[in-house]
Every structure is written in C-alpha cells, then in structure tokens.
Amino acid sequence: MKVMHLVQHLKIGGLEKMAVTLLQKSRYSQSSIIVALEGDKDTAIASWPELAELNPQIICLDKQPGFKLDVVNKLVELVEQYNINIIHSHHIGPMLYGGLACVSAKNNQLKHLSTVHDAWYLNNFKQRFITKALNSLSNVHWVADAKVVADDFHSKTAINTDSTILNGVDCCKFSSIDSDHARYEFSLPKFATLIGCSARLEEGKGHKDLIMSLLDLPSDYHLVFAGDGSLKSTLNALTLKMGLQERVHFLGNVQNMEVFYSSIDVMCLFSQREGLPLSILEAMACGKPIVASDVGGIHEVVTPEQGILVSASEPHNLAPALIKATTLISGMPIRNHVIALADAKGMSSQYDNLYAGLTV
User: Alpha-carbon distance 318 to 309, whole Å?
Assistant: First the structure.
C-alpha cells in the first residue's frame, strides 16, 4: 500500500500534525509520502525539526497563490513515480488538487480519501460549489474527524461522510514530566497558576479574550502562549497597554510540546471555530484539565470530568471557568480518558483499514 498524504503546507498546526502522525504510525508508513502544496522542504524542517527524520518522504511543491494547473500535473507525475494507490487529502485545497489528480491519472485504480477537519469553509459559496462538484466528478471517500463535523458537512453539501474517525495523539510522546523542571525549561514562574494556550497567534483563536480575562483573575494567574503568527505584535501591544506584560509569556513555536503541557495548570483554547483540535487532546494526554469554547467536536471528547466548556460568545465566563478548572482532578484520570478515546495507534489502525478496504 502506497499512500500520498496531501496537505496545503507543513507549518505546525493540528491538521498538519495529524497528517504527519498518520505517516509515522501507519503500517504503510515506509512506502508512503507526504506532499505539501505550498512552501519548500528546508523552511518546513527548519521551523518543525521533527520533520527531519521524514526528509526522504517529504515533497514540497512551492505552489504560488491562485489555482495552478501545473500542480495537478506534478501530482500525477508523483503518483506514477511512487506507484501511489491512495491520495489522502486534508482540507479544501488539497482536496481539489488531489481530486483533479485522481481524475487525470492514468492509474484507474487510484483512490481518493479526504478528511474533513471542519466545515466552516463551506459557508463560502465558491468552496461549497467546488466540494460538491468534485464529489460528482470523482469518487471521493469522505471521512470526518468528529460527528459534529460530519453533520455540518452533510447539512451544507448533502454529502454523507463514509466514516468518522477521531483525531488521535501519540500518548507515548505526550505524557507529563516534572512540573518544576518543565517551568525551568521555559523560564516560567514556579509558583504562579499557569493557563496555557497552544495555537497559532491568529484571529479566531481567542488570544485577546484570554488576555482580557486576566483582569478578572487573581494576580498569581499567568498566561503562557505556545505558537507564533501574525498577531504577535498586536498581542504584545495589548499586554503592554493593559499593564499585563509580567503575567503573559510568549514562547513562540515550541518543539517539545509535552514539556509545555507539563508546565501549565490548565489548557485553554477559546477559538471561534474548530473541528477537533489536537492541542486539547495533547494536553489531556499530559493530564491537564481543559477550558475551551464549545465549538466543533470539542464536546465529543471533553466531559465535565476533564474540563469546562464555555460559549464562544461569552468571554466573560472565561475567568470563572479557569478558576473552577484548577479544582478538577488532574493527572491519570484525564490521561486515561484520552488513551481510551483518541490514541494515535487507534486512529492510524482505523485509517489503515480504510486504505485496505478501498483498494480491495
């Protein structure tokens, strides 16, 4: 079995982590590749060093903005060069190019599997039209990463997903280490209550609301942001304006996320939209309670025993939820919940069974 995992880019994010994890954990990993439409390999590895061990299996096409027909041709060439059996695409761009490559390829046995990580993009008429048209032109096997995503996808396209497979995390990698050591690694205050957020510093991820919530929290509550993005200078300016610069810590891109999760007391993700974010699962695997906006599939994995969900339209409820979350039982009860629900081995096994079934 030879699978091409097709993503838009290889910047660190939940979708990209999931695709890389599939490549690493699949029983077909040695014969598969991962292809990024945008960017170049050297830049990707420099910002995400873990990719170095996958170097021979990584291909970056450096696609420029706009639709590029030559990218379809490049994918067809890669299908033939690597004798690909299945293109596994992630999200709208890769889904479009992967579908067109399947239609154009000489290999009539080539299959296309596409994972839907969220359905908010379907609010756009053009993207909704592309999805429905491609589904009619080629036989796409659709997988959703949460039930709510599958339902939303169907309501907007009338297309049924064939399977729902929860995102999984590597529970061997993501486990807690000593909290004091973890805080020392990042030069974080030893005795503060640390609220962590792992997300790109972009609109819609709730960083501004989190910063503002500090005004309603005790002075020993601090925020720790892991991630980088276009809002970094704006968020820094906000903390200075509010006089909170001593209580907000920007770590930038963090490579050893298990150390980050071990350093915090509560993980908070107050996004306006999500599918099933890996950051929440990773934090839970490290035994950390969750405060999150009740969007996407988050409620499918976070129960009252593991965390507190807040309406995305009610940021004023963040502070009391964060205080309450610090009283939840952390550690093994939360970790065991994730192991039973969303371990990477289980996820990859389900996808491997799909790959095998599609090629029978």
Answer: 9
| Phi-psi group of 204: left, alpha or beta (phi > 0 → left; psi -120 to 50 → alpha; rest → beta) | left
6: helix, strand or coil? strand
161-214 pLDDT tens trace = 999 999 999 999 999 999 999 999 999 999 999 999 999 999 999 999 999 999
Phi/psi for 52 (5° steps) reads: -55, -35
* Tokens 């030879």 belong to residue: 2
**138, burial (CB in 10 Å: exposed 0-12, middle 13-18, buried 19+):** middle
Q: How far apart are CA 158 and CA 177, in angstroms?
A: 46
Q: In whole angstroms, how far apart are CA 31 and each of 37, 57, 84? A: 20, 9, 9
The angle at the Cα of 302, spanning 299 to 308, to the nearest 5 degrees, equals 90
Contact 50, 76 (CB under 8 A): no
Specify the residue for token string 């995305």: 312
121: left (phi over 0), alpha (psi -120 to 50) or beta: alpha
Burial (Cβ within 10 Å: 0-12, 13-18, ≥19) of residue 136: exposed
Residue 360: pLDDT above 80?
no
DSSP line for 197-216: EES-SSTTS-HHHHHHHGGG
CA neighbor of 16 nearest in space, from 184, 252, 227, 163: 227
From the list 70, 56, 58, 138, the residue with the least C-alpha distance to 102 is 138
Distance CA 330, CA 315 (A): 24
Three-state secondary structure of 19-44: HHHHHHHCCCHHHCEEEECCCCHHHH
Q: Is 93 helix (H, G, I), strand (E, B) or coil?
A: helix
Residue 21 burial by Cβ neighbours in a 10 Å radius (0-12, 13-18, 19+): buried
Q: What is the DSSP letter of 272?
A: S
> Mind listing the pLDDT tens digit for each residue in 39-67?
999 999 998 999 999 999 999 999 999 99
